[in-house]
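2024-03-11 09:14:02 DEBUG pipeline.ingest accepted 1 chain
2024-03-11 09:14:02 DEBUG pipeline.ingest length=515
2024-03-11 09:14:03 DEBUG pipeline.predict start
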Amino acid sequence: MIIGEIPPQKDIPAVGVETVDMTMRFGAFTALDHVSIKVEPGSFHALLGENGAGKSTLVKCIMGFYRPTSGQLMVDDREIAVASPRDAAAYGLGMVYQQFTLVPSLTGAENLVISRARVPAVINWTKERRDLAVFMETMPFRIPLERPVRELAAGEKQKLEIVKQLYLGRRFLVLDEPTSVLTPAEADEMLGLVRGMTERGELTVLMISHKFHEVTKFADAVTVLRRGRMAGSGRVDEITTAELAKMMIGDVKLAELDARLPVPAESKSVLTIAAIKAPDRSGLKMIDIESLQVRAGEIVGIAGISGNGQKEFSEILAGQRPADSGTVSVKGTPYGATRSETRANNVRFIPEEPLANACAPKMTVSENLAFRTFDVKPDGSDMIWLDIKAMRRKASALIADFKVKTASSASPIAALSGGNVQRAVLARELTGEVDLLIVSNPCFGLDFSAVAEIRARIMKARNAGTAVLLLSEDLDELLEMSDRIFVMSEGKLVYETPAIGADISVIGAHMAGHH
């Protein structure tokens, strides 16, 4: 084949992959313990498991990032050795990562051409565009290849990542949480098109996912890992979601979500926002919130694709971003998010990425848990000396109550896993009287049991009368937790609906800017 020429796509069938007793040890730690998984050619196979279950290790062994301690890798029933990602590519194995790997300033066409292992020193763009047009005729995706990638929507970028792998001749694709940045409609469309390719025998897919509804809707088969071992596998149409959950977390009893009690009609407004305007991060667009109220005992959810102003909105409420105009009121009085106002009004704030935004990473768990109270006596007066023993005593009680897994309260909080950092921050923020709780993406990147625990804690606060503003990019979370949902698009609240009975396609359309 001539250098720079595109391989004839339709002539390459889907690739089947099998691991046999795959084991991976890092010193004394066994990350993968005799895992055998068979992904049939032309199948759509889902890989489930909590964080740390071994999913990433298994995939990295298949893709040549790790060399397994023992076990075999089979491609189309032949044992092969994959020492590097380049070896994996030679066998038609590719991966689409959670984070985009495209060059934002280049067009789609330029991204595709430069991704080849060999690119001519002088590129004949007339020929390349002609070849790309022929290639795109074989693809189920429609993507504007002449536009810079930075101008593409998240769904188009994700499709382009998949197209790039197919363009390079990959016929087995690992999709790592492929819908985490997509609207429901974009996710359904993209996974539906990929599913169509598997049904036609053009592609084999192994999808890492946390979303049960995606697995049941699009996958043929599923494998569940737990603590590095295979916990179960089978055809999707023969396994219930309850059985999948049990495979993932064992017989651990999850904290049940409290029932959503109706919001009392007489509930008073705790948070009131009126005519707030502020520049966004780029300084080119405005955050423009006409009005929003959150009542006591109510969760108001804010849905939206990342980058539509949610971060700036939460920064305004946290006092980290000044507003050009408008008012934020708590319990009827203007609120500027000073420490004294926050304390007087019992306002708590849980930002996204809590380790970076709500903790001092090098300080101990005990010290982080004391941030709200270290300088205040029980009677509310100012503390002159730190009471280290009382801080440790209180930290131990919170660690036990919120099931924070830590070697010791004296460990640096950065040593904890993501779920345990989030539990620690919740323990600090939900202790004592809480009248208003502002939460941003509380469960992003966390595993199944941590998610259930954290959602149950937020719901418990809501049922005790706390007003909750929940900003989340996870629509399932919003539908499960909220009483009312707003959609935020281009810095504005463009749609409101009660959560119960909400039409997901209408919410998705507003998230995508069709309003």
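2024-03-11 09:14:41 DEBUG pipeline.report The chain has three domains: 13-107+171-249, 268-346+446-515, 352-432.
2024-03-11 09:14:41 DEBUG pipeline.predict end
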